[in-house]
Amino acid sequence: MTLSTRPLRSIRSFVRRESRITPAQVRALGELWPRYGIPEGQAPLDWRSVFGRRAQVVLEIGFGNGEALAAAAAAHPEINYLGIEVHRPGAGSLLRRIETGAMENVRLMLGDAKEILEQRVADGSLTGVHLFFPDPWPKKRHHKRRLVQPDFAALVTRKLAPGGYFHLATDWPAYAEHMEVVLSATPGLADVSRTAQGQALIAERLSTRFEQRGRKLGHEVRDLVYSRKA
């Protein structure tokens, strides 16, 4: 028997579904990506070069159409925001929001957030990481695809600066419980969801149209905030 020498495929937490992209999104990608987008590559990111200034950096993973990220960036112009998404239509939508709001503190990347964190983000360089409403992969046989796993939690912890935070939200109770179990067992993280810091972050998070639809269907939204211990 001949064994394959090809590397094993890693389990992805997402599926690339290229939904319909509008002419406005195509225009934004074409005209605005060169200014606000970060090209693919493997070189470590230098935040001062990326944003043109020194400031705290907050990462949002899977920003969807960019509602929450744009709102946070508008509310905190003193903070630099990096959004990572796999879907081009969502990136096009966020670019339009950046243009409308004349925001200079937002940059975008297209790709696998886990790979980007591993290869391009320096340890201890992030003030915060946002993960809002990731795919819950509700079927038991798909649970291995969930992004929040012990290795991912350890990776995020390593990239956070001491005192930095990891803010998650989901409207799937079983996934919220899974997140809590994983994060509570991650060395170096502390649950601050009920502290003043955690409550302030939760109160500030924008309620998106996606979330509002879920609430109308009776879905309970859970926010979790963990902090990297000093």
Structure at a glance:
Helices cover 39% and strands 19% of the residues. The chain is built from 9 helices and 7 strands; from the N terminus they run ααβαβαβαβαβαβααβ. The radius of gyration is 18 Å and the shape is globular.
Entry keywords:
Rossmann fold; 230 residues; disordered N terminus; 39% helix
Structure explained in plain terms:
- By secondary structure, the protein is α/β, with parallel strands linked by helices.
- It contains nine helices and seven strands.
- Strands 3-2-1-4-5-7-6 form a seven-stranded mixed sheet, with helices on both faces.
- Helix 6 links the parallel strand 4 (126-132) and strand 5 (160-170).
- Mean pLDDT is 91; it is low at 1-9.
Spell the H/E element sequence. Answer: HHEHEHEHEHEHEHHE
CATH fold annotation of the largest domain? Rossmann fold
CATH architecture of the largest domain: 3-Layer(aba) Sandwich
Report the total helices: 9
Question: What oligomeric arrangement do these chains adopt?
Answer: single chain
| Fraction of residues in β-strands | 15-25%
Mean pLDDT: 91
Biggest sheet: strand arrangement: 3-2-1-4-5-7-6
CATH class of the largest domain: Alpha Beta
Number of domains: 2
| Poorly predicted tracts of residues | 1-9
Write down how many β-strands occur, each being a DSSP E stretch of 2 or more residues.
7
Form type: globular
Structural class: alpha/beta
First-last Cα distance: 52 Å
Helix content: 25-40%
What secondary-structure arrangement, pairings included, does this model have?
Layout: H1 23-36, H2 47-51, E1 57-61, H3 67-75, E2 80-85, H4 88-101, E3 106-110, H5 113-120, E4 126-132, H6 150-159, E5 160-170, H7 173-184, E6 189-191, H8 196-204, H9 209-216, E7 222-228
Parallel strand pairs: 1-2, 1-4, 2-3, 4-5
Antiparallel strand pairs: 5-7, 6-7
GO molecular function: tRNA (guanine(46)-N7)-methyltransferase activity
Function: Catalyzes the formation of N(7)-methylguanine at position 46 (m7G46) in tRNA.
Catalytic activity: guanosine(46) in tRNA + S-adenosyl-L-methionine = N(7)-methylguanosine(46) in tRNA + S-adenosyl-L-homocysteine
